[in-house]
Please model this.
Amino acid sequence: MSNDLRAKYGADAFDTGITMQGAGFEQRLAQRDAIDQHFTRAWLDYQITGLSRRPALDTRTRFLVLIGQYTMAKSQRLLEDTVRAALAAKLSVCEMAEIILQCQVYGGLVTVDPAIETFHKIVEELGLLPELKKSQLPLDGTASKRNRAAEEKTWHKDDVADPRTGLHQCLRNLFEVKRSDNLVCDDRGAPATQIGAVKVAAPKNAGADIDRIGAAARSGQ
Model:
């Protein structure tokens, strides 16, 4: 059957379809051919050898776009075929996982949950779970590696001058709760107030600072 369809519609269209859709392409081609050969030719010309070869996207980007599209469309059969084809084309399994997970923002649980099941089935079957684990962020993301002082040096001058920036810092200092029985003052020497076993660091003149920044924010300065 595959040789007949390849001869009928051309090796170029057939091989491109296999590359983009994997083994499932042959079944789709046979089904369309049985229903309407003229439609099948139009489908191959438009989608397979047409859209899939537009030069604006490279192969990697095209596969990632398709994975996102099929995840959002809840099309598990096409998603599975595309993931397998992408893996055969040496795409990063980590990038594919990220595309599916990012769809949580737009589609929610009912969209992403079946896609995760499909993807997990494939990577588990192919022994790719260890590769995924290597790329995982720690539980706190990048928080443990961040440094506020270093980041402040990269801020735009308008952000530094924004009164809300100072207000946020004052509030962070004022309500920074440190669960330590030994705390006497914060790292700037400001007195700390103890409430039970919890001590709250309160910078000097924090109230005045907040009043000043609040007034500036209300006046639009």
